[in-house]
Amino acid sequence: MDGSAQKYPDCIALLPGADVPCELYGARAASIVDLMAADLPVPKAWAFSVETVRKFARSDFSAEFPMTDAVRAGRLLSVRASAQDRAWGGPETLLNIGMNADLRDVLAKPLGENRADALYFRFIQDYAVKVGRLDAEDFEIILERCTRAGVPNFGAAVQQSLAFFEDETDSAFPSDPELQLRQALRSLAVAWGGTSAKILRGALGAPSDAGLGLIVQEMVLGVGRGEFGSGIAQFVSVGTGEKTAFGRYLSQSQGRDAMEDTQKAQFLAKDPRGPSLEEIYPEAFARLQELAEYARKAFCDDMQLEFTIEDGAVWLLDAIPAERTGRGAVTMAVRLATDGLITRQAALQTISPKSLNEILHPQISAKAVRDRIANGIGASPGAATGRMVFSATAAQASEARGEACILVRVETTPDDIRGMHSANGILTERGGITSHAAVVARGMGLPCVVGAADIDIDTRARKVTLKGGEVLGEGDVITLEGGTGDVLRGAPDLVQPELGGAFQTFMSWADEFRKLGVRGNADTPEDFRMAQAFGVDGIGLVRTEHMFFDEGRLTVMRELIFADSDNDRQAALNLLLPMQRDDFIEMFTIMGELPVCIRLLDPPLHEFLPSTREEMQSLAESMGLPLSKVMTRIDDLTEFNPMLGTRGVRLGITAPEIYEMQARGIFEAVAKVQNAKGISIKPEIMIPLVSAKREVELVKSRVDAVASAVQVELNTKLDYAIGVMVETPRAALRAGDIAQNTAFMSFGTNDLTQMTYGLSRDDAGRFMRDYVALGVFPEDPFHSMDIDGVGELIQIAVDRANAVNPDIKMGLCGEHGGDSASVAFCHEAGLDYVSCSPFRTPIARLAAAQAALNVPKN
Amino acid sequence: MDGSAQKYPDCIALLPGADVPCELYGARAASIVDLMAADLPVPKAWAFSVETVRKFARSDFSAEFPMTDAVRAGRLLSVRASAQDRAWGGPETLLNIGMNADLRDVLAKPLGENRADALYFRFIQDYAVKVGRLDAEDFEIILERCTRAGVPNFGAAVQQSLAFFEDETDSAFPSDPELQLRQALRSLAVAWGGTSAKILRGALGAPSDAGLGLIVQEMVLGVGRGEFGSGIAQFVSVGTGEKTAFGRYLSQSQGRDAMEDTQKAQFLAKDPRGPSLEEIYPEAFARLQELAEYARKAFCDDMQLEFTIEDGAVWLLDAIPAERTGRGAVTMAVRLATDGLITRQAALQTISPKSLNEILHPQISAKAVRDRIANGIGASPGAATGRMVFSATAAQASEARGEACILVRVETTPDDIRGMHSANGILTERGGITSHAAVVARGMGLPCVVGAADIDIDTRARKVTLKGGEVLGEGDVITLEGGTGDVLRGAPDLVQPELGGAFQTFMSWADEFRKLGVRGNADTPEDFRMAQAFGVDGIGLVRTEHMFFDEGRLTVMRELIFADSDNDRQAALNLLLPMQRDDFIEMFTIMGELPVCIRLLDPPLHEFLPSTREEMQSLAESMGLPLSKVMTRIDDLTEFNPMLGTRGVRLGITAPEIYEMQARGIFEAVAKVQNAKGISIKPEIMIPLVSAKREVELVKSRVDAVASAVQVELNTKLDYAIGVMVETPRAALRAGDIAQNTAFMSFGTNDLTQMTYGLSRDDAGRFMRDYVALGVFPEDPFHSMDIDGVGELIQIAVDRANAVNPDIKMGLCGEHGGDSASVAFCHEAGLDYVSCSPFRTPIARLAAAQAALNVPKN
């Protein structure tokens, strides 16, 4: 034997200070040693290494067995799984190894005949099922046969079970404890290697060569005369993280019986619903609390304890991190840091940014009955219940009646926006994670399920046909779960979020450490107030077109589009100007001196025009135009690929009067608010869809001219920044040119992803699932940024822009700003800020803090 | 005076061997010196430098005037423009400087009173107009007044003109020759600096600081007793480049009179239309031919001569490169090289690849009357005349009747392809240089004008409303000029191309020098034969979808799309397979062992489905399906941005049976043709729209499996290459990954441009003119490749692909393959070949040769 084999033997006795690395002996082994080191009462135990367990699977028992003495002394043993990572699970524990006729007789004295027989029967059944691969059902039948007037005769059941085992396996039930132990070890080792176990843990993130250690532990019986029993306990709430007793205890039980038979099990603390350990045996309850506190300090985390009470004494069999939801996790982490058990940095690092999602929106209660009728893509988190409506108008009517509704559409268009504002949730049959419905819903913080392809929505007939053929209609109540994409029948219980207390403390810590700014995307004054409530560093994207979809404004916008003469055009612009100005006044008033980045009009003009014949007719009437003229104009503006058409700066250059009106609206609003509030506001004006330097020059010169004019007219001083939205690969590649004329660049990664992949976000839903399932894309690139492609373009742009203009500010505004991996990339790429839906800014703040805390990768 | 000023004086006498760089004294000065050096008879001349002329414009006459002696000796002089570049033009020549009453008397002896007076009158008029800025019309009125019975009294006209001049200018007409000369020099110098002159030469490519030198030359009179006169002559045909006499002579004339008064002017060689120099004065004609031959040798080019005959002696005043069309240029260049006057390399370098366009298609005769009724974007060169038809069906009917027709559509769709094949030209109201109509037309070599926005096409009513309101209908004859985008009424004379002789010799020289392969894009057997006729190195792009638009096949394709079961799907595929196979058999049979690159199905499936309700109805009937089902399926497949949707490899992965069928068709065809012809064929199979490595792996493994199966089934050996089409920016960025699995990469620069700019080629027409006019894009990036953006992506891909797979073949297949600047880029980027429409391959071959001949830029 060489030194290293000496250091890490096949089997090691678990003692305080023992060196048992998780990758060699599994996580449970390490846990037990830590419990022992904290002087907590843990039964004697040994750990077989991962390598040795692999030999067991091949029936190679050449390893040393240091527990032989215990076996020979007639001690009952358990064999427990100790996977390298707790999260990967493992085969079930096998209890009461060593039991045979002789030991049964020995135990009959302290326990009584029937309890001793019951233990023996239980062992035979367990062993027969787990080692002998017999059917558990057969043993239940035997037990039933041996039961008279509700009283089981375990002695008879033992005899019949032994005979049944011999019948089925052609060999006698082993009575040799050493043989029993070896077979138990082999059976757990083999179970770990089974195909279904591998698939299962693969889904939990285990690699294909994931290893299992095994623990052999002396039993604390849990049954006997006096207070015996077992249970599970943690002293923090799973859902809220607050201090409370959570778990169950069952007298006269072993292992996880208390959790499996919750009907019979007792509560831990006093509870109106039934008896509790605190009442039955207050000393044991107090001791358990004490042990939990010791464990918390030993592990620097709230722990869940597996315990057994043996004649009044509390023993711990295992300790794992306490169960917790995202919300609970935040509360626990904050208290651990406040108690000095962990640093604030560590507290920030323990929480997955994604898990904040469930905190920020109502959730379906874990206890609710789920009658799932469809499943789509979970596009915007949170749960929402309401009556189904099939049009924007119906949604508004529903809101007017004070009735919660879910807007159900094949897909949404900008015309639906008002309806979306009125709805509690959105369900669409088509579209992907960044379809119109998804993007708008996330912006509004509205739960949304898109691409529910297994249902058929007929908006004209106002009905939904489910997969099985059942039909639901307008007014039927459904519930969306935006996290999972589930659509449920009826109104299951929802749990509302609370963002105070620990959550706020936690976020303030994130802000202490993060380097990256986090702004919100906001289009309306309501959005602005929401963003401020979420504590953003500013507004990273105001999509001004959203201001034109309101009823009164849409008409003027359409008049502008239909204007035949300069006079008509100017008349429409004169109507739009005060509307825009008033919006901006409200926004600047809300945000004060925080930066606000306003994107000039972006979508193609046809988005403002009606799409159905009825709407065209009514538009023709309201404008006093022949229908044919309306239809021709709409036809003229129709595009094959609107995403790649006359929009953004292309519109700003070919129809410059719109941008001029917008610039004037901004500047007049700035002047007014500066005067009123005595503050200074420096608006950021962003030009969308740029692909060449000259585009910036042309727009900039016009905006500058408007600013000069307003300064003179209002006798005021204006300070402003003009920048570009980088959405085309060419803008990224030519960032060195473009940056010469711009104060900032903001990456619009939705469009940049579309163009880099040649992939329309509206149409990607059709094949994205197949693509992710086949591993073509590791993830939907509209969900988590494609670092290899889009990321490289961003890095190229950052480097080239900084080289010519070191003062340039760089940001990202898009859905990716709320995705933690993308935020981490932005931090490393050297961006100044990310901007996303206000509802996702906490995620961005935490992700930014984690990125700042990580050691750089190179 | 320092050395350099010494070397290049303000004014230099032009003598054989004089050092007169064009940038200092202008091109005419250099020309005159060259003529003198070749010992040709040129009147004495001096050149003022560009710098000195700038002083003249400021009335600074401090320069030396070495021609003072000539002036004092009573020699008449001319002042001629000598711009740094001939192409920039220049102010008109001023003749007869030095004329005054005294000299008139001197000249009256040899010339006669009236001729001397005529010369004097002419000078007064010329000087008064060009120097004094008076109105030429006033002098015509004076002359008329002095004319009796058709005989002008020039003596009286002189007197009245002198009086009129003094009246108008308040100063006597200058009689001092030196003063006349200075004023003449000043007036030409000032004219050069005028705004309209600057704009004019700017349009001809002159920089804003373009300079003008001036020539002062002794006059050869051109008038007198005996054979006197002047003219212009070249001895090669402008249109064909063949040897012939082109030009005019006018007895008793000066300067360019012969060209301005072609009614009175004589031909050079004998001509049935009228008298000629050859008849009037054969010795002078022979001398002129001789001088032209000397000049050709001196300048190593065919030259146009400006000549004057003075008492029988021929004098040359200037020689410029002979006028020539593209066709003429090729013939001249080939003959110059064959005669040993220039090298083949030089011959190749003198021809602009673009100019070959006019050789490759019929052209509207230069003499034709042009009744232009509209103007659009010239999308595919050549002229075509025919009766207007408004549908594909009508075009086919017209072809069946043997009647030439022009297909007139608002825009074309794949459904129109058969009609386009039947038409002689295409006219659309919408679309840009790479719209469907434009791309298909160029592929077919069909003249095409798109985006003719000034007309209104109503296909249902079968009429076109012109801008003025006039309406043309079906059957009316129009003519398209694809080069200029003009649409003409009626049938002007066309000139047919001849590609033999000099053109073929010229192209064979291009092939000697070029390094870059030139392939053709071809979709049908007809295209393949065409490509072969054009002498391509292979086929760079077979768009297999074009095989499915034929009537019989479209139905089967639609059956495939509507198939509900695997059985139905397989049945449709079984029908398509032999069709594909037969196409491939024909293609491989035509091309033999030349490489053929076949692109697997690319367009989204909805392109195969009907778009009007009538067509859907008829499809429903033919398939025995309810109309609602047809409409629903079409609706399901409709995409917001089809360019960015489920097409290309995305289809190949989500509906793999189509690619498998295509692969089988290719392999079975290869096996059959190899057997039949005893040759070995290595097809190149290209996967479109790739953006990730895994896409290639998935398709490749299926294609490999089909190949293995076919090899076994047919007991044959198959050799093939699998590669990708690089159309997305991501594919270019990830070329290092992707190249690991691919034998070749072909850049699809149409789509790559669309995605790099975020610019749909179908929708770009709306703003592209504005964009180019405003200088946002220097050129339409679909026309000439965007080297800065798209080019960088290509270079990145080439470098990364070569780094991991040095054997990889790289090509470009797209419209840019026929654009000379883009071809030059491909050469420098290290591509192996470009592929374009067969009709544009000569352009690519010449551009490739020129790129190879150029000294590398770094």
Automatic annotation (TrEMBL), chains A, B:
Keyword Flavoprotein (UniProt): no
Binding site for Mg(2+): 727, 751
All residue ranges annotated as the PEP-utilising enzyme mobile domain in the record: 404-485
Names of the cofactor(s): Mg(2+)
Active site, per annotation: 436 (tele-phosphohistidine intermediate), 813 (proton donor)
Gene Ontology MF terms in the entry: ATP binding; kinase activity; metal ion binding; pyruvate, phosphate dikinase activity
Residues involved in substrate binding: 543, 599, 727, 748-751
Residue ranges annotated for the PEP-utilising enzyme C-terminal domain, each copy included: 501-851
EC number: 2.7.9.1
Pfam families: PEP-utilizers, PEP-utilizers_C
This protein's UniProt keywords: Kinase, Magnesium, Metal-binding, Pyruvate, Transferase
Database matches in SUPFAM superfamilies: Glutathione synthetase ATP-binding domain-like, Phosphoenolpyruvate/pyruvate domain, Phosphohistidine domain
Family indicated by similarity: Belongs to the PEP-utilizing enzyme family.
Stated role: Catalyzes the reversible phosphorylation of pyruvate and phosphate.
The protein's name: Pyruvate, phosphate dikinase
